[in-house]
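Researcher: We plan to redesign the surface later, but first we want a full-length starting point. Tokens attached.
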């Protein structure tokens, strides 16, 4: 039944994509992040739904009246250079079969990311894209959070098999990144019931991340909580939530969970941690010996152990040049969020953009922290966030210029901005 339902949804969406190519971006994001077909048990599990949607979207985009251009920013330039460098390292990889197999996944993801960039052209579309991300991964947060509470945290939370988020560590990182976006959606949702559901989804996502028993996810939660506290205008709500979290934690997780988290302090006695450290040292040796690194999967094929770190994964596979490009992309994206927040400060018309940039920074902080302990360097979630930030920045720059150029409001009209549309109202930046 699930196979039939998912197949009907995907193929039923194709006529809508042909009419509105951006609908294809939403479908591609949903399929790439949520992987609904991986929750079925029959023929749909291995059907190339994402590729079918991608090809349909490309065709629809080609025949549509959408602007045919690739917005260029410093982040996109670095991303294209990084992608080109990964191709070069693949050409020089010692294990060609494994390297090309992984490259096939990476370049398809990046093509989808670039298509997302070209079709996300307004604040309305940015908001819809964030909704798609929130629903896609918030589903696992909602389900996993309830599961953790009902089972007392005794059973670990996992994602769908054979996906980026299949393991407990991987889904933990994804949920840490998703919770801030659900919080943003709640802030800018008028319907009270939907707002409460989104706040509940954010909280349950944190609980589900705890339920993964991932030590990296726990560190990510602490960093995420600190970032949200620092960025919140009202500091009381984050403090209340942190207090509730601390009080209820012993009731939703078993002693086994506390024992596992305690190994963070005694990592030298933990076999998993020591294996990771060995892999990290091996990664540095590879990068020092080969300017192009070892190519995809080099560490796992030579060391028998995965790097379990986004940083050492990139270092071992693409060398120091690859790591510098990867870090530069992340730092530039963070910096652009800061610039958005600065431009939107003291401008109530741009509150939505400011809050989104803030929550994306929280997501990036969670990714940078949790990702230090697992290998998700090519996770499409990260690169879609880069696109969101690039588009959001261009919209804010344009809207700031429009707001600065507007005529002074007549006496008595200051409250409604002289009738001008704003970023949050229909008709502006659409």
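Model: Full-length starting sequence:
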């Amino acid at each position: 039944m699930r196979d039939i339902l998912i197949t009907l949804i995907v193929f039923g969406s194709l006529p809508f994509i042909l009419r509105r190519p951006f609908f294809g971006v939403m479908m591609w994001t949903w399929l790439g992040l949520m992987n609904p077909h991986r929750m079925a048990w029959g023929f749909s599990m291995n059907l190339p739904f994402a590729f079918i949607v991608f090809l349909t979207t490309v065709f629809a985009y080609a025949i549509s009246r959408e602007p045919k251009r690739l917005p260029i920013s410093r982040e996109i330039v670095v991303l294209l250079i990084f992608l080109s460098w990964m191709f070069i390292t693949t050409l020089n990889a010692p294990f060609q079969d494994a390297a090309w197999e992984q490259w096939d996944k990476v370049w398809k993801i990046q093509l989808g990311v670039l298509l997302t960039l070209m079709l996300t052209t307004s604040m309305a579309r940015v908001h819809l894209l964030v909704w798609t991300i929130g629903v896609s991964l918030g589903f696992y947060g909602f389900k996993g959070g309830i599961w953790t509470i009902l089972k007392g945290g005794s059973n670990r939370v996992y994602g769908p098999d054979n996906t980026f988020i299949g393991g407990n560590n991987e889904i933990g990182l994804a949920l840490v990144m998703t919770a801030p976006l659900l919080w943003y959606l709640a802030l800018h949702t008028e319907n009270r019931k939907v707002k409460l559901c989104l706040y509940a989804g954010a909280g349950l996502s944190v609980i589900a991340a705890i339920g993964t028993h991932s030590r990296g996810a726990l560190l990510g939660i602490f960093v995420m909580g600190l970032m949200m506290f620092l960025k919140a205008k009202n500091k009381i709500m984050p403090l209340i939530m942190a207090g509730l979290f601390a009080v209820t934690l012993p009731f939703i997780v078993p002693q086994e969970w506390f024992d596992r988290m305690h190994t963070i302090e005694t990592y030298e006695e933990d076999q998993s941690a020591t294996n990771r450290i060995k892999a990290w040292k091996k990664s540095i040796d590879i990068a020092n010996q080969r300017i192009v690194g070892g190519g995809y999967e080099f560490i796992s094929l030579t060391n028998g152990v995965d790097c379990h770190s986004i940083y050492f994964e990139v270092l071992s596979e693409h060398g120091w040049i690859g790591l510098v490009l990867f870090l530069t992309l992340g730092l530039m994206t963070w910096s652009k969020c800061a610039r958005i927040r600065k431009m939107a400060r003291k401008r109530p018309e741009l509150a939505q953009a400011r809050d989104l940039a803030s929550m994306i920074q929280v997501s990036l902080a969670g990714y940078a922290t949790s990702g230090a302990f697992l290998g998700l360097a090519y996770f499409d979630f990260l690169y879609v966030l880069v696109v969101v930030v690039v588009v959001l920045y261009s919209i804010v720059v344009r809207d700031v210029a429009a707001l600065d150029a507007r005529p002074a409001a007549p006496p008595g009209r200051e409250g409604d901005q002289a009738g001008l549309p704003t970023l949050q109202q229909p008709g502006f930046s659409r």
